[in-house]
Request: fold
Amino acid sequence: MLSIAIISGSSPSCTPAPHLPPRIDYARPGGGFPPAVPRAAPAIPSRPPAGYSPPTLGIASTQHPWKPGVPERRWTSIVLHHTATDHGSVEAINESHLKKKWLGIGYHFVIGNGSGMADGAIEPTFRWREQMHGAHAGDDEYNQHGIGVALVGDFEAGRPSPAQLEAVKQLVGTLRAAYGIPVDRVLGHSDVKATACPGRHFPLAEVSRSLLPQYHSPSAHSGSNHP
Reply:
């Protein structure tokens, strides 16, 4: 039972428990959150084809500062979250998720907002460094093959900071180029599960289109079979 909870888990910070009294930083006209209905998320193949290896689009290791030092997992999507809190850090989220009897923090990356982590700081977690499945989506396929990225903040109440937006675009652009992830597989948590995460003020369409400038240049495709 524990392993099921770990693999199919969804971060509790994305969906505050309804029985708790509302916090002032969550307040909105009328109180509470609007009902969220997930859009149909693209299906992910249950297993890679024979002879599969992660696609590369010619980006150098210096352009992928988060390239792990272990064999890379088959990543097919990116799932974006907010923490629904004013402050946070990898350590604080890890402690919270350990209390849920998980292996630890469920995300692969956390981006700070200046309260608990530097504003715009991108920190990979042990799940990314060890290329482990996530525990963030509430859907096994997206936990297994989706890169979980959480930004500290409550984007039901306001937008990410300019530094956070710049950071998440850089990260998403790098990951898309490194693993051949198309724009329609850069998803909000609400595209996978009924939740308000990553918040109504999160500019998902803008972030999902992020690409490295090198992705468009002919040199980026030298020796690659990708169009």
